[in-house]
Design brief:
single chain; 468 residues; alpha+beta; five-stranded antiparallel β-sheet; 18 strands; globular; binds flavin-adenine dinucleotide
Length: 468
């Protein structure tokens, strides 16, 4: 860094209420590390913003110094979009406050909060905001791409529960987006990712949930794999709205206390069905599982909602090496089951598998054009071909496996772009296909209004519409 730059950096540091971290700081490596350990980018500066003014100051400094910027919420994007090599990271990790208004059932959540922080605050009032399934994920990136989890069938995507957002635009101005204020921006934020600005505060609608929920976990040996997938394809779309479901296709049984020792490490398929009603309603919802294909092991238990939200945390620990490629299909038919059954045994890492959501219930109540979320509001499966390992060579092998599986599935896919939040590689063509031409064009017009110079491009990038 030149002397002039050092002076500029010193003045920038003085103007921040938060902290400026440089490669000279002892915690630089810790501050720049993100969930996906396969990403090793070295930014020039990390601005740990403390206030909305800090965010504007950081964007202004990047503009003056011609630095690329990235925006970090929870640091969980598979692509490592939140850290830019040689640029400035606008890091919101310390802007993680969550305030609940229990009477209005609304929640104001900082742009750097994690799901764990959101859940802890809301559950103390018996409320929850529909979000994801791993508690160390960031609220910001998850929300801006859509947000799906246990409560999606009951209350829709996270974006379907977004009421407003405070956004710092590339020029440093601060705007509010809601149905009444900048509605075009509000539409774009609900699915269009971090393309338009830095969201410092999200306001969500919350719902009464728990504190106790009912969990059924069912695991089938790979030998019964095709029949288990057929059972899931029959059962899952018909589950009551008061349940959440996640399929673990090609899961290796984890070394958890609830897995009998003799079955730990075995390859198979898992289904988790969460009931938000009574124990009897949950038992009724999963009765067809018991009557169907015999499981290798199963677990049925009540648990606190916050424990459910942490249940899968260790299956995807921070620092693991990862690659993801997703798609959607409307039907778990014989073609899909055939491809999955052929490919699952070819994975190398016990941590690699295909987490699969089925979107239905409240998800389909929302009008197609109401948000920018890039999926038709019809029942569908959202799958991620997910490679994970602590070993780089194994990751390379399973990345090839994930890509090959994805390629074989594409003829049967409803959308080969898939969910933008399940993209380790954000190719322009797949981003366009994820949204479809009409939504992409509308997003491009919003982008041209709010970020015409494409300052926010480390994301599933929408190119600004060009004025004709
Ligand atoms: C272990 C794991 C589990 C997951 N489980 C689920 C799940 O159950 N459901 C689901 O829907 N998704 C899930 N995801 C995907 C997740 O939604 C995305 O990885 C998401 O991008 C994470 O957001 P983040 O804020 O943690 O990530 P980041 O990497 O910090 O950000 C992701 C993107 O959003 C931008 N961004 C971040 N913060 C802001 C902000 N405040 N303002 C503007 N832009 C911002 C970033 O620049 C980047 O482009 C999971 C991911 C992982 C790694």
């Amino acid at each position: 860094m030149t002397t002039l730059a050092e002076q500029a950096v010193g003045s920038f540091r003085d103007r921040l209420e938060g902290r400026l971290v440089t490669p000279d700081d002892t915690d630089y490596d810790q501050v720049r590390s993100i969930w996906n350990g396969a990403i090793d980018h070295r930014p020039a500066l990390v601005a740990r913003c403390a206030t909305i003014e800090d965010v504007a100051t950081a964007l202004g400094f990047a503009r003056e110094e011609h630095l690329e910027i990235s925006v970090r919420g929870g640091g969980h994007s598979f692509s490592g979009a939140s850290i830019c090599p040689d640029g400035l990271v606008v890091d919101l990790s310390d802007m993680n406050g969550v305030e609940v208004d229990p009477d209005a059932r609304t929640v104001r959540c900082g742009g750097g909060a994690t799901l764990a922080e959101l859940d802890a605050a809301t559950q103390s009032y018996g409320l929850a905001v529909p979000a994801g399934t791993v508690s160390h994920t960031g609220v910001a990136g998850l929300t801006l791409g859509g947000g799906m989890g246990w409560l999606t069938r009951r209350h829709g995507l996270t974006v379907d529960n977004l009421l407003a957002a405070d956004v710092v635009l590339a020029n440093g101005s601060v705007v509010r987006a809601s149905e009444d204020e900048n509605p075009d921006l509000f539409w774009g934020l609900r699915g269009g990712g971090g393309n338009f600005g830095v969201v410092t505060t999200f306001t969500f609608r919350a719902h009464p949930v728990g504190p106790e929920v009912h969990v059924g976990l069912f695991f089938w040996d790979i030998g019964d794999g095709p029949d288990a997938l057929r059972l899931m394809s029959d059962l899952v779309p018909r589950l009551p709205r008061d349940t959440g479901a996640l399929m673990g296709v090609g899961l290796s049984a984890p070394p958890e206390p609830f897995v009998p020792q003799e079955h730990q490490g075995k390859l198979g398929h898992a289904l988790i069905v969460v009931g938000f009603g009574t124990a009897e309603e949950h038992a009724e919802a999963v009765a067809a599982v018991a009557d169907g294909v015999p499981t290798l092991f199963e677990l049925r238990t009540p648990m606190p909602f916050t424990a459910l939200q942490r249940m899968l945390d260790d299956a995807a620990p921070t620092g693991i090496l990862s690659y993801d490629r997703g798609l959607t299909y409307s039907d778990l038919n014989e073609h899909v089951i055939g491809v999955l059954s052929g490919y699952i045994p070819r994975k190398t890492s016990p941590m690699s598998f295909c987490p699969t959501f089925h979107l239905g219930g409240a998800y389909t109540d929302v009008d197609e054009d109401a948000t920018a979320f890039g999926g038709l509001r019809e029942p569908m499966y959202v799958m991620s071909c997910s490679a994970m390992s602590p070993d780089p060579e194994v990751l390379t092998a399973d990345t090839a496996w994930a890509r090959a599986l994805w390629t074989e599935l594409t003829p049967h896919a409803a959308n080969v772009g898939g969910y933008v939040n399940f993209m380790a590689e954000m190719e322009e063509d797949r981003v366009r296909r994820s949204y479809g031409p009409e939504k992409y064009d509308r997003l491009a017009r919003v982008k041209a209004t709010y970020d015409p110079e494409n300052v926010f491009h480390r994301n599933a990038n929408i190119l600004p519409a060009v004025a004709l």
